[in-house]
Design a protein that fits this description.
single chain; mainly beta; Immunoglobulin-like; eleven-stranded mixed sheet; 11 strands
Length: 203
C-alpha cells in the first residue's frame, strides 16, 4: 500500500516568502540610527503665522492716513499673546523717517510728542494705536501716500527683534493737531487727530 506524504514546497517559494516578511517588518519599524523620514521631518503647520512663530506681536487692522505731504501716521491694534511684556522702541518705512508718538496736553491743547521709553504692549493683552492716542508717526513724507497704497512698516523691539507688517492707506478727516517742538521735526498742518475716524478704517 503506497504511503501518502505532504507535497514538497519548492525552496525558491520559501525563500521568497521569507524576503517579503523581512521587508514588511523593516518598513514598519525604524532603527534609532535611521528613523523613518516622515517621523523625523514632520511638515510645518501652515496655520502658524510668522509673527506667532517669532513670538513678537500680532498687528490687527493696520492702516495709515493718506496724505500728499508733510506728516501722517500708522494705526492698528497690537496683540501680545506672549507671557512677557513687549516694548516697541522704533519703527521704519521707506517713504519717510518714523517716530513713536503720544498725545499730551500742552498750553491748553492736545499736541503730539515723541513717546519716551517706547510703546509697551503688556503680556496677554492688546494695545490700540489710534488717532488722538499713541501712533506710529511718519515724518516729512518723501512722496504722497495715496488711498489704497500699501506701506511696509518694520517695528524694532527692545530686545533687538524686528517685525514687519503692511498698512493700507485710507482717507481720513479729523481735527488738526500740533507737533510739540524740540523733537527734530517741523510742525505740519494736515495731520488728522480726532479720537475716532469718521468711518471705519477697515471698511
Amino acid at each position: 500500500m503506497p504511503i501518502l506524504t505532504a507535497p514538497h514546497r519548492p525552496r525558491r517559494t520559501t525563500a521568497l516568502l521569507t524576503a517579503v516578511l523581512a521587508a514588511t517588518v523593516a518598513a514598519g519599524c525604524g532603527s534609532p540610527d535611521n528613523p523613518p523620514t516622515a517621523a523625523a521631518n514632520p511638515p510645518s503647520s501652515p496655520s502658524v503665522s510668522a509673527s506667532a512663530a517669532a513670538g513678537v506681536l500680532t498687528v490687527r487692522d493696520p492702516w495709515v492716513k493718506a496724505a500728499d505731504e508733510g506728516m501722517t501716521a500708522a494705526f492698528g491694534t497690537l496683540v501680545n499673546d506672549g507671557e512677557a511684556d513687549v516694548t516697541i522702541t522704533g519703527a521704519a518705512t521707506d517713504v519717510s523717517p518714523m517716530e513713536l508718538h503720544e498725545m499730551t496736553m500742552k498750553d491748553g491743547k492736545m499736541v503730539m510728542q515723541a513717546k519716551q521709553g517706547g510703546i509697551v504692549v503688556r503680556a496677554k493683552s492688546s494695545h490700540v494705536l489710534e488717532p488722538g492716542g499713541e501712533h506710529l508717526m511718519l515724518m516729512n513724507l518723501r512722496q504722497p501716500v495715496k488711498a489704497g497704497d500699501e506701506l511696509s512698516v518694520t517695528l524694532t523691539f527692545a530686545d533687538g527683534r524686528t517685525q514687519s507688517f503692511t498698512a493700507v492707506a485710507k482717507p481720513f478727516t479729523g481735527a488738526q493737531e500740533s507737533y510739540a517742538p524740540g523733537h527734530g521735526a517741523t510742525p505740519t498742518a494736515g495731520m488728522s487727530g480726532a479720537p475716532r475716524p469718521a468711518t471705519s478704517p477697515a471698511s
